[in-house]
Protein 1
Amino acid sequence: MRHAADGPVLVDFWAQWCPPRHMIAPVLDQIAAERPITVVKLNSDENPTVARDYQVMSLPTLMLFVDGKPVAT
């Protein structure tokens, strides 16, 4: 996964059928507005190979990338 951003990138792996995504979406939007971080929302149903490549086992999953590498899940 490549995303041009200055600073850390928080990827939200989600799916339409996942109810908790409705609860965390406003929090992620607030974090993005208040912090020097880019938040990217990735629909795992539409991008199953990306979710597989990063070993996402449940949804939602949040993964923090720094310099293009995952550093926390």
Note: The chain has two helices and four strands.
Protein 2
Amino acid sequence: MKLRVLGSGTSTGVPRLGGEHGPADWGLCDPAEPKNRRSRVSVLIEHPEGRRVLIDTSPDLRSQLLACEIDRIDAVFWTHDHADHCHGIDDLRPLRYGRAGPIPGYAADETVRRLRQRFGYVFAGQHGYPTIVTLDTLDNLRICEGFGVAACQMPHGPAQSTGYRFSYQDKSIGYATDFSEITRNMVNLFHGCDVLVIDCLRREPHPTHAHLAMSLELAEACRVDRAVLTHLDKSMDYAALGREVPGHVLVAYDGMELVA
């Protein structure tokens, strides 16, 4: 199984627009380090036979897929409906070309409801344009494109986000972004993952996201082989953060690839 980090930044990306010293606000991130240039979060998980599952459609999806030379996906999953995780949904349209049918899509019940409400044309077609994605709930989903699939809901401040675990044979990759509390269900879902991608907004506590100590706590509780910190804001310099964390914890960057 291969993990590709398409985007590793928070909702505003890094650098953030605007600032005291010009149009780009790098915060504490070194602008000379390419791994500090972060687009909004999204990942791709690739099956050994080549099938690809996309998690979230960030507003930067087009440029992410072009940068990684991805011209096909076989399914898409959403964690929740916040703008930085779904507003690139229209970029799925060219990936529908040449397919016999729509791209299969999945999300938790409430996310399905909200996505249908806002992007109905994607899931039902409109004005002669075909349906781009079929959207189903996770209720009875156990296998998708050769992967075993498991999920749980995670607290995300007053909202919720879906955590996923994709498995093939004895290997597994977990994805836990946008959570603000560690629950027993999360530990059960991600326990023993070969790779776990974890929300890590900043060092200081935040009301809707994991901070560094919480991210490391989840990695430790789940006994994962490797943890990958993502959803990083402009205070999280790549090199500085890398020096702070244990050796099995990696700092995500756009274009990063890992094999489980």
Note: Residues 212-222 form the longest helix (11 residues).
Protein 3
Amino acid sequence: MKSLSILAVDDQSLFREGLALVLTRLFPDVNLRQAGSGPEALEMLQEHRFNLLLLDIGMPGMNGIEVARQVLRQYPDLRIIILTQYNGEGMITHLVRLGVHGFLLKNSESQEIKKAIETVLDNRQYITPMIHPSLLKEEAVVAAPSIQFSKREADILIYLKMGKSSKEIAERLALKENTINSYREDMLQKTKTRNVAELISYAYENGVLG
């Protein structure tokens, strides 16, 4: 394999560090850098050359779908493997159409990670077997979601996913409880979802959480 330079992008530092340990064990000569957000990743891509991007989808503020869209446009030779803990149809089929090169679930074993990297660097697509093939059929592809979430909304979604109440979220974000309720109602209206459970499902399917 030619010299390997990887940028790993995930907003959870613990996951990034664990991934880094796996990658350096699998590829001892790898040149590995890390980014904790979409904007940081795009900045690093301007400063360094990489041949592989390992990209988390569910990042607050600028999610992985938007990062992938910009990278594929600006760096067409850069290979992208999506890392996610969710295998929903809406997100995956859109990213297939967008042109990403691989998909891995975050609980993948190290040997599958190695196989995926070697496959996409060989100019072939890698889709984890844990994603059902029916999701990748051309007729299943859906349009990209047009709804955007602010960083504050994404932060609130993360706490809602954890089952936190409006009062608890308000305390953690130093906001008023009514403000949290207002954010939640706004997100329900713009996503046309009926409750928090549907809102969280929407967020997973469209890459806001991942």
Note: Residues 164 and 186 are 18 Å apart (CA to CA).
